[in-house]
Amino acid sequence: MEVIYEDNHIIIVNKACGEIVQGDRTGDVPLVESLKQWIKEKYNKPGNVFCGVTHRIDRPTCGLVVFARTSKGLSRMNDLFRKGEVHKTYWAIVKNRPPKDEDTLTNYLIAVEKNNKTYITNPDTKGAQKAVMKYKVIAQSKNYHLLEIDLLTGRKHQIRAQLAHLGCPIKGDLKYGAPRSNPDGGISLQSHRIHFIHPVSKQEIDITAPLPNDTLWQELNQSIIHD
Predict the structure, then answer these.
(1) What is the mean pLDDT of each run of 10 residues along the chain (227 residues)?
(2) What is the pTM of this model?
(3) Three-state SS across the chain?
């Protein structure tokens, strides 16, 4: 359990790829249950421990996830997410360079439960949801490019589907068109930074995740061109 930030009301964890945030039909132990056990042992708490899920990131994705330690924290974090006041930045590694070095992508998405995949569709498709994100190429190596992504809406598999539609599937993401899997079974997408005003203390929370312990991530990070 890699806890990055903790106070009385919220706790931010650096999720490893392959972990699920919340229980699903696989029956695998979700991160929220592991975190409850971690809190119970750390603070020697008797009985049930409260830990609320405020948002989720995909199983093959790594990076920051915010949980609530109190019901007040949960309801207020939910309000922040609903109002779009939690700013999430992702980093993604892609092989193909996007047509523009930076752009805003707007698409309409439809999620298909049967194969757990999201598709680009027409705005008038029943159930379609508008998806908006900004990206910027911030580094490159001989074979790969590192994109910084500001997520303006939070749709299922949004980044994966929109980048694949652009012709830039995320490294390791077989579901969305990558030619090969990653050795760890994950995809090269990280919930890299999260920024919001704490809903209880009103302090600014601005957390950046440590990079994955991987040569390519480190190489691209070192080649970032800073303004």
Answers:
(1) 95 95 82 95 91 95 97 96 95 97 97 94 95 97 96 94 98 97 95 97 97 94 76
(2) 0.94
(3) CCEEEECCCEEEEEECCCCCCCCCCCCCCCHHHHHHHHHHHHCCCCCCCCCEECCCCCCCCEEEEEEECCHHHHHHHHHHHHHCCCEEEEEEEECCCCCCCEEEEEEEEEEECCCCEEEEECCCCCCCEEEEEEEEEEEECCCCEEEEEEECCCCCCHHHHHHHHCCCCECCCHHHCCCCCCCCCCCCEEEEEEEEECCCCCCEEEEECCCCCCHHHHHHHHCCCCC
